[in-house]
Write a structure and sequence with these properties.
mainly alpha; DNA polymerase, domain 1; Arc Repressor Mutant, subunit A; 20 helices; elongated
C-alpha cells in the first residue's frame, strides 16, 4: 500500500511540475517588467536621450505587452481545461492547443528580438548609455533563451531532458551601444533603424580590428550608406570613405545588413545614376568622351591636369616615389596631388597611411592649439613623415566638409 501511495504522490508531483512548466513557458511577465523598467529609466532622464529613443522603447513595450497579455489569456484557458482533466499529458485539448500556439509565440518573440537588434536609442551620457546597454542585453538574453525553450516544446516533454536543454543554451551574438556622443547624434535620417544597425556593426569591427571608430566608418559614411543604400561592391566604392581596401576587408558585412533591410522594407538602391560617376572620373584624369571642336579648342588652351595624372598613375598601382620619379617631381609635390583626392573622398586614407599612424596624428592634432605640418612633425618626430601628416589633415578636412 505504501508503494502505491508513493507512486501516486510521484505521479501528482510530476503532473504539478508539468503544469508549472507549461505556465512558465508561456509567461512573459519577466520580459515585460524588464522593458517597463527601462522605459521608466529613459523617461526619468529624457532630456539626455535622442528624441526618437522613447518612440522606439514604446514600440518595444507594445510588442512585449502583447506577448504578455496573450500569454496570460492562454494561462486562463489552460486552467479552465485542467478543471476537466488535471493531467496535462492526457488533456487532448491542451496538447493540441499548445502545438498550435507555440509557432505564434515564436513569431511574436522574433519581432521583439528584431526590434532590439535595430535599437535607435542614443545618448551622449556615458553612464546612462552603460545602464541602457546592460538592460537591453539582459532583455535580449531573456527573450533568446525563452525563444529557445519554446521551440519544440510539448506538454509531455521529459522533465530531465528539459533541464539538460536549458543547460545547452548558447546565447546568440548580440551587441548594442547607445552611446553616440554629439557627433553621432543624427536627426531626420530616412532609416534610423538601419543607421543604428550599421553603427553597431561599425563599432564591432572597430573592436575586432582594434581601430578607432572613425577609421572604420565615419558618421558621414554611415549617413551616406543610409541615404543611398548601395547594393553591391561597385556602388559601395562610390560611398565616401569606402575605397577598395575597406570594401575588400569588410564591405560585405555592411552590404549584407543593407540588403537585408531593403528586402524587409521593399527598398532599392538610391545611388545617383552611373553617369555622374563617369563625370567624376573625367575630373580626375580618366578617358573623356569626344568633345565638339569648340570644346577641344578650349581644352587645348587649358593647363594639363597634373593632379589628375598623378592620381591616374596611383590608381594604376604605382608608388608615390615611382610617380615622383616618372614625372620628375619631388615627393612632396606628388603627396600634395594625392592629398587633394583624399580631401575629395576619391582616395581612402588607409590606402596611404597605416591605421596606427592615422591615430598618432589625430591624437597629436588634439594636443596643439595651432595645427600645422611643422608643429605636428615636431611633436611626433620620426614616428610619421610629412606625407603621413599631410594625408591625415586632408582626410580630416574631408570628414568636416
Amino acid at each position: 500500500a505504501s508503494a502505491e501511495v508513493l507512486k501516486s504522490e510521484l505521479r501528482e508531483a510530476t503532473q504539478a511540475a508539468r503544469t508549472e512548466l507549461l505556465m512558465d513557458v508561456f509567461d512573459f511577465r519577466k520580459e515585460s517588467d524588464m522593458l517597463a523598467a527601462l522605459l521608466v529609466f529613459v523617461k526619468k532622464h529624457e532630456s539626455s536621450f535622442r528624441e526618437d529613443s522613447l518612440p522606439w522603447l514604446e514600440r518595444g513595450s507594445q510588442l512585449i505587452a502583447s506577448l504578455r497579455e496573450t500569454g496570460l489569456k492562454f494561462h486562463d484557458w489552460i486552467r479552465m481545461q485542467l478543471d476537466a482533466e488535471p493531467d496535462v499529458v492526457n488533456n487532448i485539448q491542451v496538447v493540441e492547443r499548445v502545438k498550435r500556439a507555440s509557432p505564434h509565440f515564436l513569431c511574436e518573440m522574433q519581432k521583439a528580438i528584431a526590434h532590439l537588434q535595430s535599437c535607435t536609442i542614443s545618448t551622449d551620457n556615458k553612464n546612462y548609455a552603460r545602464e541602457v546597454n546592460d538592460r537591453i542585453k539582459e532583455l535580449f538574453g531573456a527573450l533568446a533563451i525563452h525563444q529557445f525553450l519554446i521551440s519544440g516544446f510539448s506538454v509531455d516533454v521529459d522533465l530531465e531532458l528539459w533541464q539538460q536543454k536549458k543547460r545547452t543554451f548558447q546565447q546568440p551574438s548580440f551587441s548594442v551601444n547607445v552611446f553616440g556622443g554629439s557627433v553621432e547624434t543624427r536627426k531626420n535620417l530616412p532609416h534610423p533603424g538601419l543607421y543604428w544597425q550599421l553603427k553597431q556593426l561599425r563599432d564591432a569591427i572597430s573592436a575586432r580590428k582594434e581601430q578607432p571608430l572613425y577609421l572604420v566608418a565615419s558618421s558621414k559614411t554611415l549617413e551616406e550608406l543610409v541615404n543611398y543604400l548601395p547594393q553591391d561592391e561597385q556602388e559601395l566604392e562610390r560611398i565616401s570613405g569606402f575605397g577598395k581596401v575597406k570594401v575588400g576587408s569588410y564591405g560585405g558585412e555592411f552590404l549584407e545588413i543593407i540588403r537585408s533591410y531593403c528586402q524587409e522594407n521593399g527598398l532599392s538602391s538610391n545611388m545617383p545614376p552611373q553617369k555622374e560617376a563617369k563625370r567624376k572620373k573625367e575630373r580626375v584624369g580618366e578617358a573623356k568622351p569626344e568633345r565638339r571642336s569648340s570644346e577641344k579648342k578650349d581644352a587645348a588652351d587649358k593647363k594639363p591636369d597634373t593632379k589628375g595624372e598623378s592620381y591616374r598613375m596611383f590608381r594604376e598601382g604605382m608608388k608615390i616615389s615611382e610617380i615622383a620619379s616618372a614625372r620628375g617631381f619631388v615627393l612632396s609635390t606628388i603627396e600634395g596631388h594625392l592629398a587633394h583626392y583624399v580631401q575629395q573622398g576619391e582616395i581612402d586614407i588607409d590606402e596611404l597611411v597605416p591605421a596606427d599612424k592615422v591615430s598618432l596624428v589625430s591624437e597629436a592634432i588634439g594636443k596643439i592649439e595651432t595645427v600645422s605640418l611643422g608643429g605636428l612633425k615636431g611633436l611626433l618626430g620620426e614616428a610619421v613623415s610629412f606625407g603621413d601628416i599631410r594625408f591625415v589633415l586632408a582626410w580630416r578636412n574631408s570628414l568636416e566638409s
